[in-house]
Amino acid sequence: LLAFILGISLKSLAQSTINIGSTSVEVDTIYTGLDIPWEIIYGGDGHIWTTERKGIISRINPVTKTKTVVLNIVSSVYQNSESGLLGMVLHPNFSITPEVFIAYTYGTFSNLKEKLVKYTYNGTSLVSPVVILDNIVGNTTHNGSRLIILADNTLLFSTGDAQNTAFPQDMNELNGKLLRINLDGSIPSDNPVAGNPVYSYGHRNVQGLLLHP
Fold this sequence. Notes:
Blueprint: H1 2-14, E1 17-20, E2 23-26, E3 37-42, E4 48-52, E5 56-61, E6 66-72, E7 85-90, E8 99-108, E9 111-121, E10 126-137, E11 147-149, E12 154-158, E13 177-182, E14 198-201
Antiparallel strand pairs: 1-2, 3-4, 4-5, 5-6, 7-8, 8-9, 9-10, 11-12, 12-13, 13-14
């Protein structure tokens, strides 16, 4: 019976159309061979943007099914286990303000850090890096890294506890938090604590952020 079920499941996966209840979903492979993609975003430019944890950012054309590397910072990124080039978000008005925000770990195994950096897309590559937030304690796991830009153009950045369970409750530490900052790195005047980027605290390792309509 188990072999029969597995056979049916594998056959279903091999089909180009999958039925989910009364809905038929067509499956189309856009690109294969990505090396641990951590963030995948359908950009307003009609391309799929993705990070690869080793330190690569690419745009994938869903029509031609081709991949174009727009940033290679492999030499700057420390990648091991869950660390590396992680979260990414595009400016919500990307066609006018072509800015891309990324989070990645760097340094050495004994002194691992995480930072948030803004790049500008010039039509072919990501250029002009500006460090927005730096010196966040990193680890090979529990680095958080998810990014989202709110309607008021403030950015939420999730940080993990970096395997230190005391950090999330410590308001003087950036780890184990949701941080809210302006897109230039300054702290919004209406944050819960004046002059502090902490928006919420007590988190172990937030790995998903979604803005409700």
